[in-house]
Amino acid sequence: MSTVPAGNATIRTARQQRSDVTRTTVLDAAIRVLVERGYAGASTVAIQTEAGVSRGRMLHHFPNRDALLMAAVGHLARTRIEELPAQVRWPDDPVERISMATDIGWSTFHQPYFVASMELWIAARTNPRLQAALLPTEREIGQTVRRAVAGFLGPELTWRPRYPELYPILLTSMRGTASTYLIDRRDPTTDPMLDLWKSMIATYLLD
After folding, report:
1. Which residues does 11 contact at the CB level (< 8 Å), separation at least 6?
2. Where are the domains positioned within the chain?
3. pTM for the structure as a whole
4. Which of 51, 63, 125, 201 gets the highest tally of CB atoms within 10 A of its CB?
5. Most confident of the following: 65-69, 142-146, 161-165
6. What's the CA dihedral at 135, 136, 141, 147 to 10 degrees?
7. Phi/psi zone of residue 27: left (φ > 0), alpha (ψ -120 to 50 degrees), beta?
């Protein structure tokens, strides 16, 4: 049985680590450029410059701009949203948990992930190729968001029979309200819809 020399394994591990760092650097840069300049301004050159990597290294990971932007939004959703429920110490009281879950869930709609997604959605309206690339990514992100919301509320609340009915209403309401903030910069923590959402969740899951 042949074995891989320890030195070669170490070299491969170091190369893989550098490759992972480069990939993450490019993805983070893509999100920054997409949010700051919009889809039209998120060129590969702009992203490459922002990331501080060579064009060859960037193309090694992502063959074209749309593939890069899809990967960037998916990466952000996984790292910023999917892992969030496990990072919070949730209260045992269901009313308190609903209040905290609503506040945190609403805050995710004011992060770069949401702005980046909206940029791609709007651009896809008149770009069939982008639309085709975006659909599977959005379905994947949709599952990520669904799992995160379930994590926010916890199994004690999400097993309630009306939760499947509540989820799409809550999601579309928050997403629609958040879209108005793209042009009207105000404090989202004072939005009057927050109290309404908390009351609605309690009605669906506790009454």
Report:
1. none
2. 64-206
3. 0.81
4. 201
5. 161-165
6. 120
7. alpha
